Each structure stands twice: as structure tokens, then as C-alpha cells.
Amino acid sequence: MELAWKVAEGSEVRLADYDPDYTAKNTSHSEAKEELDKLGAELDGLQELMWAAHHHSLLLILQGMDTSGKDGTIRHVFSHVNPQGCAVQAFKVPTEEEASHDFLWRAHKVTPGRGALTIFNRSYYEDVLVVRVHNLVPEEVWTKRYKEIKHFEKLLVDNKTIVLKFFLHISKDEQEQRLLAREKDKDKAWKVAVGDWKERAYWDEYQKAYEVALSKCSTDKAPWYIVPANHKWYRNLAIAHTLVHVLRGYKDEWQADLEKRGRQALAELRQMRKEAHK
Amino acid sequence: MELAWKVAEGSEVRLADYDPDYTAKNTSHSEAKEELDKLGAELDGLQELMWAAHHHSLLLILQGMDTSGKDGTIRHVFSHVNPQGCAVQAFKVPTEEEASHDFLWRAHKVTPGRGALTIFNRSYYEDVLVVRVHNLVPEEVWTKRYKEIKHFEKLLVDNKTIVLKFFLHISKDEQEQRLLAREKDKDKAWKVAVGDWKERAYWDEYQKAYEVALSKCSTDKAPWYIVPANHKWYRNLAIAHTLVHVLRGYKDEWQADLEKRGRQALAELRQMRKEAHK
Fold first, then answer.
1. Can you give the residue ranges of the Polyphosphate kinase-2-related domain (chains A, B) (predicted)?
2. Pairs across A and B, CB distance < 8 A
3. Residue A207: how many CB atoms within 10 A of its CB?
4. Where are the alpha helices (DSSP H) in B24-167?
5. Strands (E), chain A
6. Residue B278, in any domain of the structure
7. Nearest CA in chain A to B260
8. Other beta carbons less than 10 A from residue A133's beta carbon
9. How far is B126 from chain A (nearest CA, A)?
């Protein structure tokens, strides 16, 4: 059972076809909590194994409209994971230095090394989203970026990086509720940003920009998943489930890698001892 | 009750005076597990608050002989913490570029920004430890480093960084047991390193180098703690306890910072709405 919708390579996404309120048929809220804890523990074990195997790395991209739950996903899905070997990179408005390079430069620097997991909270996809919506660069520049992104992700995949991309899909009404809720809670009011309301005025343009990005940049090896995200508990469950499902496929290979590394290390140790006895 | 020993500024540490087997009187193993879970949850809340307050940052340095449990501490003490706002930096043998700069250069680049927690797994202290033991630079160079470290940490503290340093104190026998255990476990053998056995031959020189570093570089504002670390469960408990104890002292201030940020954000929003209605 797929809890998030994988975008098939070459397909044309229409977000209106995907229900942000969706929660799989037989899942209740309380069952989901239990399930998430189980998946969290399994994810922790898989990350530990990936780290020890030192063969693949994992890049996880989270995108979505403001308030769609990128921060909450990180907090709830990855709270059991060992912080050693797990980095989170948030992409904000580029600094002057970043802006003076190509749009992939700042992202490339912080991609995960062998064994590591890196979560991108926003990413270079902003360069075909906010940049496209507000025409921050000429159209002839941003239109080239879809292909540049595909080539970049291909490079990462060829170098044993598992690339998974999640679009947190919420409705326009749900966003309004979440923005208003922040204003009413003194512990959350610091998250209130004038910019969020201003960007909300471009909702349709953003949805369109996402449709194009998801359609053009979902590939078999670096797929986009559309995650129904109006219900936070379901969003967390869907992402954890998808992730664990994908990583399970590597488990045997990683166990073999780890044991091979162990045998090599022991051989070196024996060699040292032999020489010490000469 | 202090579970780890704070090194008073200006004192002369003799590690032989500290029992690596120590576990506080009334703590049993099973009580400790429960206590660690409680402290972990509190730590999670405090980090969340620090992140939202956006005022202080936290630098946590872990040092200790090979196998002393730096990785294990990160895994067990910080496994509940939100990975967003928590980074782990491991310091290995310097790259050519790193070595072409002063010894603090590579560390300074990765110190935590406002609101963030960064854990250093090893640190610039290696430049007065391994470097001193093996004379990797002339004595006149490394002798200056104690003062340079103090000045560097003062800079960080002046800029609202909370600096806490933990020395994981194990016995020479315990190290041998742990090294041998790795050889016998096929899932852990990848951690076996010829270098660990080679460095073990310099045990006494390392202990001496640690004594000097702890004595010269423990200050009121950036203290060293000696953590009895022969028992892993006690080591985790002692570090979590110390950390939570220190951070609790900031709780009210952070709550006030967070609410102030909230009021500012709401004021900006009101201003925007007023202008929109003109």
C-alpha cells in the first residue's frame, strides 16, 4: 500500500487531482501514532546500518507551501534518528556570495557524504518556484533549470546517493487556518511572517509552478512523491512509510557491506600484529 | 547532585583522582534508563525553546580516548532531539586545506548560529592532544594553543554561545575490553582500527595531555566536565543531567525572548494589514 503518491516519470501532474485531505482507508489516528513509532524505530536502525555500510548516502528533499509542515515533518519523522549522520539544511534567500554562483552551487556543497542522510528543508527547487512566480531571473534562465536539476540529481544518483523528494500538499483553506492559528498562540507567534501572507496571494501561480517542477523532474531514480498533508499525523505516517519502504530494499546489501568492512579491518589488524611479532 | 565533575577554573587536574567506574550512590541501572528518558524529553523541549528564542547557541564538545563513547553519547543522549537545529561535527585528520590554516579555522566555520546546538565529536582540543603526544608541530607552537583556545571560547561565549565540554573518562583496562569486543562482533568489526591499538601505546602521554588541557582550559564560562565513563548508562545519564541542569537556567529568559519575537511579528503583521486597507 502506497501512502504517498509517487509521480511517474514523464507524467503530467495536476494537483487538483490529488486530495490533500486524503487519509488511507483503514488508518485511524491512534493506530497511526503507534505505526509511526514503529516506523521511526525501523528508520533509526536503517540509518545506523547505512552509516556503518558506508556505501550509499540519502538525500531527502522537502518542499511545500508555507505552513505545509516541513519543520514538523523533520521534528516528528526524524526525532529518533541518530543526529550523527543526519544533517538538516534549510535554504533561505541566497546570500550575496551564493547568488554570485550558479543556483546549484550552494546545494552541492552540502549534499550527504557516504553513509550520511541529509534533509533539505526547501532546496534548489525554489529556483524554479519562487523564482519563477516572481520572475526573479529571466524566463530563459529558469526554463533551463529543470534539465539542470535532472542532470544534477543524476550525478548524485550515479554516485550512490538515494534521492527522495516529498511535496507536502495542503489546501489553500488549510493554510489559512494554520496561519491564523499562529497568531493566536503566544508560543507560536514568532513564526508569524508578513511574507507568508504576501506569498499566499500567489497561491495559484505556486501550484502551477509545482505542477511543472513535479512533472519535469520526477524520475525513476529520483522520484517526487505527493504527500496529502492537511492532516499532520497522516503526512508524518506517509513520509515515514515511504522512506522505510525504500530503504528496506537496501538492507541486505548494506549488511553485506558492513560485514565486508569488518573483514577488511580485521585483516589489517592481523597484519599489524604479525609485523609486531617479527 | 552533580553526576559529572566540573573542573574548577585554575585547578590542577590529576585524572588518577577521578574514578572512571564511579556511579552515583543511589542510582540503579533500571532507574537510570527511566531517568535518561525523562531527561531526553526535557532536553528536547529545552532545545526547541532555545531554537525559538533565537538568542543563545550551544556548543558541546566531546573528547575522550578511543572507545570512550563519544559516538554512543551522541546516539543515546541526543536521539530525541529535533535534528533541525542540531548538527554534529566530527573532526578527523585535517585535510590539506585545513592544515594550511590556523588550527581553529576549521572549527570556527562550523560553530552553531543563534538558536542552534552543535556537537563537536573531537575538536580543536586534538591540537593539544594528539598533536602534543606525537609532536606534530613544534612545542613552541602547541604551548601557545591553550591560551588561543581560551580566547576563542571567550569570543564564542561573548557572542551568547553556551560552551560545555565533556571529557569521557575510561580506564585503560576498559578500553582494552572494548577494543577486543569489536573484534568479536561481525556487526561491529568495521569499527576496528589499527590506529586505535597504536595510539593505546601512548596511553600515559594522552592522560597527561588531557590533564594539562583540562587544567588550562576549564573556565567558569566554558567549563570542562570529567564524566565517569566506564559504565555507558552512567555516562549517558551524567551528560544528559549536566546539560539539562545548565539549560534549565536559561528557560525563563528564552520563554521571554520567544514571546518578544512573537509580539514583534504580530506588530509587523498589523502594520501590513493597516497599509493594505488604506
1. 28-249
2. 121
3. 15
4. 29-53, 70-77, 96-99, 105-108, 130-133, 139-158
5. 5-6, 57-64, 86-90, 117-121, 161-169, 224-228
6. no
7. A190
8. 16
9. 19
Within-domain flag for B272: no
Q: Where are the alpha helices (DSSP H) in B185-231?
A: 194-200, 203-217
Per the structure, the complete domain to which residue A253 belongs is given by 5-277
- Residues B41 and B78: their CA atoms lie apart, in Å, by 10
- B189 inside domain: yes
User: Residue A1's pLDDT is what?
Assistant: 63
CB atoms within 10 A of CB A184: 8
Question: Tell me: the pLDDT tens digits for A151-193?
Answer: 999 999 999 999 999 999 999 999 999 999 999 999 999 999 9
Distance CA A35, CA A31 (A): 6
* CB–CB contact B192 A272 (8 Å): no
CA atoms within 13 A on the CB side of B209: 23
* Structural contact between residues B229 and B182, judged by C-beta atoms closer than 8 angstroms: no
Say if strands A161-169 and A57-64 run parallel, antiparallel, or are unpaired. parallel
Residues B190-207 have pLDDT tens digits of: 999 999 999 999 999 999
pLDDT band at B26 (very low <50, low <70, confident <90, very high): low
The answer to whether position B259 is within a domain reads yes
CATH of the domain at A199: 3.40.50.300
Contact A78 B83 (CB under 8 A): yes
ipTM (interface predicted TM) = 0.89
Q: Cβ of A83 under 8 Å from any chain B Cβ?
A: yes
Three-state DSSP class for residue B117: strand
**Per-residue confidence band for A199, with pLDDT thresholds at 50, 70 and 90:** very high
Q: Decide if B194 and A272 are in contact by the 8 Å CB cutoff.
A: yes
Contact A192 B262 (CB under 8 A): yes
| Mean of per-residue pLDDT scores for chain A | 95
Q: For every residue of A89-140, which 3-state class applies, written as one string?
A: EECCCCCHHHHCCCCCHHHHCCCCCCCCEEEEECCHHHHHCHHHHCCCCCHH
Q: How far is B82 from chain A (nearest CA, A)?
A: 5
Residues of A in contact with B44 (CB under 8 A): 79
Average pLDDT on B9-23 reads 96
- Cβ proximity of B87 and B116 under 8 Å: yes
